[in-house]
Amino acid sequence: MQKNIDGLTISKIEFLRKELHKHNYLYYIKDDPEISDSEYDRMMKELIELEKSYPDLSSPDSPSMRVGAPPLSVFATTEHTIPMLSLDNGFDDSDVLTFDKRIKKNLNTSDEILYTAEPKLDGIAVELVYENGRLSRASTRGDGTRGELITENIRTIRSVPLLLQNSDKIKTPALLEVRGEVVMGHAGFKKLNRNQLANNLNIFANPRNAAAGSLRQLDSKITAQRPLEIFVYGIGRATNIFAESHWEYLCILKKLGFRINSLIKSGLTIKAVIEYYREISEKRNSLPYDIDGVVLKVDSLKMQQSLGATSRSPRWAIAYKFAAMQETTKIIDIDVQVGRTGVLTPVAILAPVNIAGVNVTRATLHNEDEIKRKDIKTGDTVLVQRAGDVIPEIVKVIDSGRTGDEQKFSMPANCPVCGAEVVREKDESAARCVNTDCPAQIKERIKHFASKAAFDVEGLGDKLVEQLVEKKICTSCADIFYLNIEKLKTLDRMGDISAKNIIKAVEKSKKISFSRFIYGLGIRHVGEHLAKILADHYNSFDGLAKKLPEEIEAVEGIGPVVAESIFNYFRQDKNLEIINSIIKSGVKVIYESAKKKGTLEGSAFVITGVLETWTRSRIKKIIESAGGRVNSSLSHKTDYLLAGKSAGSKLTRAKTLGIKIIDEDKFKSMLDS
């Protein structure tokens, strides 16, 4: 039973919280502690005991939250108001110099561009959202648009401010979205693995995996025991914060209590950036955390806005990656895998080798031409590399390791799975199995169809799909929707509960957006981005299936090769039968274009300059909800250029192309009409 609360108790709790926040900041951000660890621990213990005695005085921003909260059953997800885009990569000086030339060309200037450069931390990207100075939620990067809510886990990281620091020169923002990287240092990683071994638990392969696993614990008390750190590197949305450069933003974040990497440098020319890269490369092995390159960003925020972004990455930044981790091993055999479109891919089976904490046993050989170019044979000693999450590949053969017993590889004339003829079209490097009923192709098509980005059928993993195809229970994607418990129970290790869960997951997947449906079909050359473009433009399968290649190509973002591929897909009766069977099973398709009928229906916009009324992400949503679309670059298919203040080269180009130029007032009137 809670005791009566008196003024002295409230004052004591407030005092302890204030002091502990201050000492957290001094220790983790300023690296200048004023008290001993034991004194800090005594204060924390006293606060926790008081909060237990007076639970009505608990607060989500109390330093006691560093120890964790009650376990969750599952992570919810949240949408990033501004997408957390990935970065384009450069691998040598010429890539970076080309990037600089492209920046100057797009800005129509010959002046030196100044950059901010920073170590590229090998961790987990997150977004922290502060409302009125308090941490309100935190999420992972996820797919860039949506991430998992990990607020309670983030609260346990000592270098994350729960409350923003007061600053005389900076008004506490009503809203602040901060992007950063959560990492685990080498010392903490070694200590964690020692503890894992002592408790007979599996050890982690590398610090990044350990950090990722720690952030995704459903019990934040476990996360609290993990030695996680954070460095922030940018801002999403923000109010009451004004800056002219990326570096100014970082300085503001530091004043508000965030940890900024001490190795960041600003005001660098492209030549100085390359020198910085050399400097960081030499320091790499002596740093207390893992890095895999250097990120350079155009420092001017005005220039950043003018340069804009593609659907995947900002045009004003690039990651200059370090040379990939490499090791030497032996090719035991060369296997041939068959993909969902029939492409045969040779894969090297390797003698196991550990590369950057990961046990590597396979490496892609891409195609027959690549094998011939590198003169790869079974039995060769080879140099293998992996970079991040990229599939390992063979860099070169170690000629001195040859004994004469090595064997040449030839692509099989017949499919290794179904025995059908293998053909290689003119001007293509890929060899294909011509049999669309090949079990290997069916398996891969179903795996793709059930994947998270398509129908997202939870529990329908690779091994289960393989059994379904091998036992001829599923001969196409449509058969998934006609599964029943009796059929599933014929599979290995499949009981009543597991079968019911699969049926439940299939039923749940029956409500799907048109874009995800299109992507799930696995049409050659049509990925998630192009599926979204097609779904935005067409309001039914019939509308898409009956179009000629030139009509499909007329859609902004669709080229002739993709248009021909889509046309050919819908000319095959079997594909149409599969789609009809899926629809008949009760699948409900939500058509994007049907949702977006509005005053801007069919109009294509490009945005440039600084807007006063809306953020870029907000105005994009407004245009799309009214039936229009927003493109990143101008073309003859652009209807309007929405130009804000300080519009640059796009304004000049729009005039040249005869594109209608509008300001914010004109845009508002279009919405009202």
How would you describe this protein?
By secondary structure, the chain is an alpha+beta fold. It has 6 domains: 7-67, Helix hairpin bin (Helix Hairpins); 88-321, 2-Layer Sandwich (D-amino Acid Aminotransferase, Chain A, domain 1), CATH 3.30.470.30; 325-435, Nucleic acid-binding proteins (OB fold (Dihydrolipoamide Acetyltransferase, E2P)); 439-509, DNA polymerase, domain 1 (Orthogonal Bundle), CATH 1.10.150; 513-595, DNA polymerase, domain 1 (Orthogonal Bundle), CATH 1.10.150.20; 604-672, BRCT domain (Rossmann fold, 3-Layer(aba) Sandwich), CATH 3.40.50.10190. The protein contains 25 helices and 24 strands. The strands form 6 sheets. Strands 12, 13, 14, 15, 16, 17 and 18 form a 7-stranded antiparallel sheet that branches. Strands 2-11-10-3-9 form a 5-stranded mixed sheet. α1 runs antiparallel to α2, α12 (439-449) packs across α13 (462-470) and α16 packs across α17 (528-537). The radius of gyration is 28 Å and the shape is globular. The model has no long low-confidence stretch (mean pLDDT 88).
| SS class | alpha+beta
Radius of gyration: 28 Å
Strand runs, count: 24
From the spread of the alpha carbons, the general shape counts as globular
Low-confidence stretches: none
